[in-house]
Design brief:
The chain is elongated, with a radius of gyration of 21 Å. Helices cover 50% and strands 6% of the residues. Helix 8 packs antiparallel against helix 9. By secondary structure, the protein is mainly alpha-helical.
Protein backbone atom coordinates (compact mmCIF):
# COMPACT_ATOMS: atom_id res chain seq x y z
CA UNK A 1 0.00 0.00 0.00
CA UNK A 2 1.45 3.29 -1.13
CA UNK A 3 -0.38 5.79 1.11
CA UNK A 4 1.77 7.25 3.92
CA UNK A 5 -0.82 6.00 6.40
CA UNK A 6 0.64 2.51 5.94
CA UNK A 7 4.33 3.44 6.18
CA UNK A 8 4.66 2.12 9.73
CA UNK A 9 2.53 -0.99 9.14
CA UNK A 10 4.78 -4.03 9.70
CA UNK A 11 2.90 -6.31 7.32
CA UNK A 12 2.99 -3.68 4.61
CA UNK A 13 6.74 -3.24 5.17
CA UNK A 14 7.26 -7.01 4.92
CA UNK A 15 5.46 -7.08 1.57
CA UNK A 16 7.55 -4.15 0.35
CA UNK A 17 10.87 -5.72 1.41
CA UNK A 18 10.40 -9.41 0.74
CA UNK A 19 8.04 -9.75 -2.23
CA UNK A 20 8.16 -8.56 -5.81
CA UNK A 21 5.28 -6.08 -5.37
CA UNK A 22 7.45 -2.96 -5.24
CA UNK A 23 9.48 -3.93 -8.27
CA UNK A 24 6.37 -4.80 -10.25
CA UNK A 25 4.76 -1.50 -9.27
CA UNK A 26 7.80 0.38 -10.58
CA UNK A 27 7.60 -1.54 -13.84
CA UNK A 28 3.90 -0.72 -14.11
CA UNK A 29 4.68 2.98 -13.70
CA UNK A 30 7.25 2.72 -16.50
CA UNK A 31 4.65 1.26 -18.83
CA UNK A 32 2.00 3.82 -17.91
CA UNK A 33 4.38 6.77 -18.27
CA UNK A 34 5.06 6.17 -21.98
CA UNK A 35 2.24 8.50 -23.01
CA UNK A 36 0.51 5.85 -25.13
CA UNK A 37 -3.30 6.04 -25.03
CA UNK A 38 -4.90 3.48 -22.73
CA UNK A 39 -7.51 1.48 -24.58
CA UNK A 40 -8.56 -2.13 -23.80
CA UNK A 41 -5.91 -3.66 -26.07
CA UNK A 42 -3.21 -1.52 -24.48
CA UNK A 43 -4.42 -2.50 -21.00
CA UNK A 44 -4.09 -6.19 -21.87
CA UNK A 45 -0.59 -5.64 -23.27
CA UNK A 46 0.40 -4.13 -19.91
CA UNK A 47 -1.06 -7.10 -18.03
CA UNK A 48 0.92 -9.41 -20.32
CA UNK A 49 4.24 -7.61 -19.89
CA UNK A 50 7.05 -10.08 -19.12
CA UNK A 51 10.02 -7.70 -18.90
CA UNK A 52 11.60 -5.99 -15.95
CA UNK A 53 12.43 -2.36 -15.32
CA UNK A 54 14.27 -0.74 -18.19
CA UNK A 55 13.03 -3.52 -20.52
CA UNK A 56 15.28 -6.09 -18.82
CA UNK A 57 14.76 -9.67 -19.99
CA UNK A 58 13.53 -11.72 -17.04
CA UNK A 59 12.59 -15.04 -18.61
CA UNK A 60 9.25 -16.82 -18.46
CA UNK A 61 7.73 -17.25 -15.05
CA UNK A 62 9.95 -14.75 -13.25
CA UNK A 63 8.01 -13.53 -10.21
CA UNK A 64 9.20 -9.98 -10.76
CA UNK A 65 7.36 -9.66 -14.08
CA UNK A 66 3.82 -8.32 -14.26
CA UNK A 67 2.93 -11.46 -16.22
CA UNK A 68 4.68 -14.19 -14.26
CA UNK A 69 2.29 -16.91 -15.50
CA UNK A 70 0.61 -17.29 -12.10
CA UNK A 71 -2.31 -14.84 -12.47
CA UNK A 72 -5.52 -16.42 -11.21
CA UNK A 73 -7.88 -14.03 -12.98
CA UNK A 74 -7.74 -10.68 -14.72
CA UNK A 75 -10.29 -8.34 -16.26
CA UNK A 76 -10.27 -5.09 -18.19
CA UNK A 77 -13.18 -2.71 -17.61
CA UNK A 78 -14.36 0.24 -19.70
CA UNK A 79 -16.67 1.90 -17.16
CA UNK A 80 -17.85 4.52 -19.64
CA UNK A 81 -18.84 2.07 -22.36
CA UNK A 82 -20.04 -0.47 -19.75
CA UNK A 83 -18.00 -3.30 -21.26
CA UNK A 84 -15.82 -5.79 -19.40
CA UNK A 85 -13.24 -8.15 -20.92
CA UNK A 86 -12.62 -11.33 -18.91
CA UNK A 87 -9.50 -13.45 -19.38
CA UNK A 88 -10.05 -17.10 -20.19
CA UNK A 89 -6.58 -18.15 -19.01
CA UNK A 90 -4.15 -19.58 -18.44
CA UNK A 91 -2.91 -16.52 -16.59
CA UNK A 92 -3.34 -13.56 -18.98
CA UNK A 93 -2.43 -15.48 -22.14
CA UNK A 94 -5.86 -16.62 -23.30
CA UNK A 95 -8.59 -14.68 -25.07
CA UNK A 96 -10.29 -11.84 -23.20
CA UNK A 97 -14.01 -12.29 -23.76
CA UNK A 98 -16.07 -9.12 -24.12
CA UNK A 99 -19.24 -8.83 -22.04
CA UNK A 100 -21.83 -6.07 -22.43
CA UNK A 101 -22.34 -5.00 -18.81
CA UNK A 102 -25.37 -2.87 -19.57
CA UNK A 103 -27.18 -5.85 -21.07
CA UNK A 104 -25.92 -8.24 -18.38
CA UNK A 105 -27.27 -5.93 -15.67
CA UNK A 106 -30.59 -5.46 -17.46
CA UNK A 107 -29.94 -1.80 -18.21
CA UNK A 108 -29.63 -1.99 -21.97
CA UNK A 109 -32.43 -1.57 -24.47
CA UNK A 110 -32.65 -2.93 -27.97
CA UNK A 111 -30.31 -5.47 -29.56
CA UNK A 112 -26.87 -6.01 -28.06
CA UNK A 113 -24.08 -4.16 -29.80
CA UNK A 114 -21.41 -6.41 -31.40
CA UNK A 115 -18.36 -6.57 -29.18
CA UNK A 116 -14.84 -7.60 -30.12
CA UNK A 117 -12.95 -10.04 -27.93
CA UNK A 118 -9.27 -9.35 -27.31
CA UNK A 119 -7.10 -12.02 -28.95
CA UNK A 120 -4.88 -14.70 -27.45
CA UNK A 121 -1.25 -13.89 -26.68
CA UNK A 122 0.86 -15.67 -29.35
CA UNK A 123 3.03 -17.07 -26.55
CA UNK A 124 0.21 -19.43 -25.57
CA UNK A 125 0.69 -21.63 -28.64
CA UNK A 126 4.46 -21.29 -28.88
CA UNK A 127 7.09 -23.97 -28.41
CA UNK A 128 8.69 -21.76 -25.78
CA UNK A 129 5.58 -21.93 -23.61
CA UNK A 130 5.21 -25.69 -24.07
CA UNK A 131 8.83 -26.13 -23.00
CA UNK A 132 8.19 -23.94 -19.98
CA UNK A 133 5.16 -25.99 -18.94
CA UNK A 134 7.09 -29.26 -19.27
CA UNK A 135 9.97 -27.74 -17.31
CA UNK A 136 7.63 -26.78 -14.47
CA UNK A 137 6.24 -30.32 -14.35
CA UNK A 138 9.74 -31.81 -14.29
CA UNK A 139 10.82 -29.35 -11.60
CA UNK A 140 7.83 -30.25 -9.43
CA UNK A 141 8.68 -33.95 -9.83
CA UNK A 142 12.30 -33.27 -8.91
CA UNK A 143 11.20 -31.42 -5.79
CA UNK A 144 9.02 -34.35 -4.74
CA UNK A 145 11.85 -36.83 -5.31
CA UNK A 146 14.26 -34.75 -3.25
CA UNK A 147 11.71 -34.53 -0.47
CA UNK A 148 11.44 -38.32 -0.49
CA UNK A 149 15.18 -38.70 -0.07
CA UNK A 150 15.94 -39.68 -3.67
CA UNK A 151 18.38 -36.98 -4.88
CA UNK A 152 19.64 -38.98 -7.87
CA UNK A 153 16.13 -39.28 -9.31
CA UNK A 154 15.53 -35.64 -8.42
CA UNK A 155 18.62 -34.60 -10.38
CA UNK A 156 17.48 -36.58 -13.43
CA UNK A 157 14.13 -34.76 -13.53
CA UNK A 158 15.78 -31.41 -12.82
CA UNK A 159 18.22 -31.90 -15.68
CA UNK A 160 15.28 -32.53 -18.03
CA UNK A 161 13.76 -29.25 -16.84
CA UNK A 162 17.10 -27.47 -17.30
CA UNK A 163 17.29 -28.54 -20.94
CA UNK A 164 13.82 -27.09 -21.53
CA UNK A 165 14.08 -23.86 -19.50
CA UNK A 166 17.69 -22.97 -18.64
CA UNK A 167 16.78 -19.54 -17.21
CA UNK A 168 14.24 -20.68 -14.64
CA UNK A 169 15.52 -19.26 -11.36
CA UNK A 170 13.67 -21.63 -9.04
CA UNK A 171 15.07 -24.59 -10.97
CA UNK A 172 18.64 -23.49 -10.29
CA UNK A 173 17.74 -23.04 -6.63
CA UNK A 174 16.47 -26.63 -6.57
CA UNK A 175 19.48 -27.96 -8.48
CA UNK A 176 21.73 -26.31 -5.93
CA UNK A 177 19.89 -28.15 -3.17
CA UNK A 178 20.10 -31.45 -5.06
CA UNK A 179 23.82 -31.18 -5.77
CA UNK A 180 24.50 -30.16 -2.18
CA UNK A 181 22.57 -33.22 -0.97
CA UNK A 182 24.72 -35.39 -3.27
CA UNK A 183 27.90 -33.82 -1.92
CA UNK A 184 28.76 -32.02 -5.18
CA UNK A 185 29.81 -28.69 -3.72
CA UNK A 186 31.17 -27.15 -6.93
CA UNK A 187 28.01 -27.93 -8.90
CA UNK A 188 25.84 -26.70 -6.03
CA UNK A 189 27.73 -23.39 -5.91
CA UNK A 190 27.33 -22.95 -9.67
CA UNK A 191 23.56 -23.37 -9.52
CA UNK A 192 23.14 -21.17 -6.45
CA UNK A 193 25.12 -18.41 -8.16
CA UNK A 194 23.00 -18.73 -11.27
CA UNK A 195 19.85 -18.53 -9.16
CA UNK A 196 21.07 -15.27 -7.63
CA UNK A 197 21.88 -13.88 -11.09
CA UNK A 198 18.39 -14.67 -12.32
CA UNK A 199 16.69 -13.40 -9.16
CA UNK A 200 18.89 -10.34 -8.67
CA UNK A 201 15.99 -7.92 -8.95
CA UNK A 202 14.51 -7.00 -5.54
CA UNK A 203 11.58 -9.39 -5.39
CA UNK A 204 11.70 -12.28 -2.91
CA UNK A 205 14.76 -10.94 -1.13
CA UNK A 206 14.34 -13.25 1.85
CA UNK A 207 15.03 -16.34 -0.27
CA UNK A 208 18.02 -14.66 -1.88
CA UNK A 209 19.54 -13.98 1.54
CA UNK A 210 19.05 -17.64 2.45
CA UNK A 211 20.87 -18.76 -0.71
CA UNK A 212 23.66 -16.27 -0.08
CA UNK A 213 24.09 -17.85 3.35
CA UNK A 214 24.30 -21.35 1.85
CA UNK A 215 26.88 -20.11 -0.66
CA UNK A 216 28.96 -18.57 2.11
CA UNK A 217 28.89 -21.90 3.95
CA UNK A 218 29.95 -23.83 0.84
CA UNK A 219 32.76 -21.40 0.10
CA UNK A 220 33.95 -21.14 3.70
Amino acid sequence: MMDETFESDLQNEWVRRYTSSGYRYDRLEELLDTGEPMDPARAVSVLRDRRGKGEEELGLGNRNALENLTTTQSVVVDATAMVIWVAEGPSTLGRYQAIDLARALGRGEGPAAPLDDLPVDPLLYSEEFRDYQEAIEATDHARVMLGRGMPERARWSAQVALALAPDLGELHRLLGDIERELGNRDEAREHYRRYLELELVPGRRREQVRVEGILAELEG
